[in-house]
Specification:
single chain; alpha+beta; four-stranded mixed beta sheet; 8 helices; 8% strand
Length: 189
């Protein structure tokens, strides 16, 4: 049963995009119901919504359905403005957007996916491996993951070094120098 605010999150536990939404909901203290999905298609609960979107997470608020992590976070900020954690001034908004783009579109997420340990249990599931290969257009064979992992880890080290030597170099705990985590911190993770 959905909580009083009608938020329902459709996800699987190890989805990095779903983790971003879960962190956001936790930081905001927003109650939500979850509908845990299988890691690979088909997803019958999602199909029952009439949604033909293959990615996770999906969020519903009442009859409205949101299918992109960036859109989900934006809509949660808009629909529940009391206690919003997004940036408020133009400079902070620009930095928050820059971190969002850098993490998702700029290659950080892609490199993190390449850094998955070859011993990850899901890599023993042929259905999941085929689902990932069909979706991403690259091999998810353990041998190929092992070969590409050192380069991916080097790129991730560079990304963290950039954050630590610039934005976080002054010792601040949170990216926007806030007293608690903000949406910018989620965007940078």
């Amino acid at each position: 049963m959905a909580p009083h605010n009608d938020i329902v999150l459709f996800h699987y536990s190890f989805s990095p995009y779903a983790r971003r939404v879960i962190w956001y909901l936790a930081l905001r203290g927003l109650e939500y119901a979850q509908c845990v999905q299988p890691a690979a298609l088909p997803r019958e609960d999602v199909n029952a919504l009439g949604v033909k979107y293959r990615r996770i997470p999906i969020l519903s608020i009442g009859r409205d359905i949101y299918c992109d992590t960036r859109l989900i976070l934006q809509k949660l900020e808009e629909r529940f403005p009391s206690g919003a954690i997004g940036a408020s001034d133009p400079d902070q908004k620009a930095l928050q957007k820059l971190l969002e783009t850098w993490t998702i579109d700029g290659g950080v997420f892609y490199r993190a996916a390449q850094a998955i340990p070859p011993e990850m249990p899901l890599l023993n599931d042929p259905k999941w491996v085929k689902d990932r290969e069909d979706y991403m257009g690259r091999s998810w064979a353990k041998e190929d993951i092992a070969k590409g992992r050192p380069e991916a880890l080097a790129h991730l080290r560079e990304a963290f070094e950039l954050l630590e030597s610039t934005l976080l170099a002054d010792g601040r705990q949170w990216i926007l120098k806030t007293k608690q985590p903000s949406l910018a911190d989620i965007e940078g993770s």
